[in-house]
Amino acid sequence: MSDEIRNIFDRIAPIYDQLNDWLSLGQHRIWKEMTVKWSEAKAGDTCLDLCCGSGDLAFRLARRVGKSGQVYGVDFSSAQLEIAKERSQSQYQTPPITWIEADVLNLPFEDNKFDAATMGYGLRNVTDIQRSLKEVHRVLKKGAKAAILDFHRPKNSTARSFQQWYLDHLVVPMAEQMGLKEEYAYISPSLDRFPSGDKQVDTALAVGFATATHYPIANDMMGVLVVTKF
Ligand SMILES: C/C(=C\Cc1cc(O)c2ccccc2c1O)CCC[C@H](C)CCC[C@H](C)CCCC(C)C
Ligand SMILES: C[S@@+](CC[C@H](N)C(=O)[O-])C[C@H]1O[C@@H](n2cnc3c(N)ncnc32)[C@H](O)[C@@H]1O
């Protein structure tokens, strides 16, 4: 299953950023900025962006930690990381971001390393949510936060119907124009499998986080799970 997921993101890498902009009417930038703010990353911090993809959240973290900080972006899609590296070169980077091709279910870092972490549209795509949250907990310093942004199914039936309509009539047809229908058709069933905000909180507390809060955004079509390690 993880090979299938890796292949999806390898294949969509060349158009991923552009489609996100078009399909979210640019709103994803706001949702990502909110996520980085909720991570409480600050100047001088050492930060981790899990499932970094083409680097959107890692770049935002870099701007917050400044030249005295450090940022690591981890993803198992080599094609996504290539895009992140290309983007790195085309913009003045303070600090330089370290891009690592690895599985977030088995992070190549020692315990208690990071002052803050982000994960944007990654938790829904990993094959073992509990294990992923355990790894996040392991590598965070005591008192550190992680902010985890993802889609989910809204509670409100009208919002759910709109979300599904949007996916069926805008997202997948636009992806189909680019020969990526199957890759984007994957989103809907991934939403069906993904736990609600309340269940995400329960899982986070069960793996050992001292606090876990889920903030619905975008009319409850997205959400940010903020967890703290004590
Ligand atoms: C940045 C966004 C999605 C990232 C993303 C996550 C995935 O799991 C994927 C899986 C397979 C292919 C692609 C992705 C993927 O791009 C969010 C913006 C892009 C969304 C595809 C747009 C969908 C937005 C909401 C359903 C509706 C928003 C309506 C509002 C009026 C903008
Ligand atoms: C929807 S993209 C999100 C990319 C980026 N965070 C963003 O916000 O645009 C999901 C990313 O998670 C990565 N991913 C999924 N499962 C992973 C795993 N087990 N280990 C590492 N990366 C993984 C995929 O390769 C993909 O780049």
Provide the gyration radius in Å. 17 Å
Distance between the termini: 33 Å
CATH topology descriptor: Rossmann fold
Top-tier CATH class: Alpha Beta
The figure for the number of domains is 1
Low-confidence stretches: none
Which CATH architecture?
3-Layer(aba) Sandwich
- N-to-C order of helices and strands: HHEHEHEEHEHHHHEE
Hetero compounds: the ligand C/C(=C\Cc1cc(O)c2ccccc2c1O)CCC[C@H](C)CCC[C@H](C)CCCC(C)C, S-adenosylmethionine
Key words describing this protein structure:
Rossmann fold; binds the ligand C/C(=C\Cc1cc(O)c2ccccc2c1O)CCC[C@H](C)CCC[C@H](C)CCCC(C)C; methyltransferase; UbiE/COQ5_MeTrFase_CS; 48% helix; 230 residues; 7-stranded mixed beta sheet; alpha/beta; globular; 21% strand; binds S-adenosylmethionine
Task: Give an overview of the whole structure.
- This protein is of the alpha/beta class and 230 residues long.
- The chain has one domain: Rossmann fold, CATH 3.40.50.
- The chain is 48% helix and 21% strand.
- The protein contains 9 helices and 7 strands.
- The protein has helices spanning 2-23, 27-39, 56-65, 78-89, 129-139, 157-177, 181-185, 187-193, 197-206, and strands spanning 46-50, 70-75, 97-101, 114-120, 140-151, 211-217, 222-228.
- The two termini are 33 Å apart.
- Bound molecules: ligand LLAZDA3J and S-adenosylmethionine (SAM).
- S-adenosylmethionine (SAM) binds next to α1 and α3.
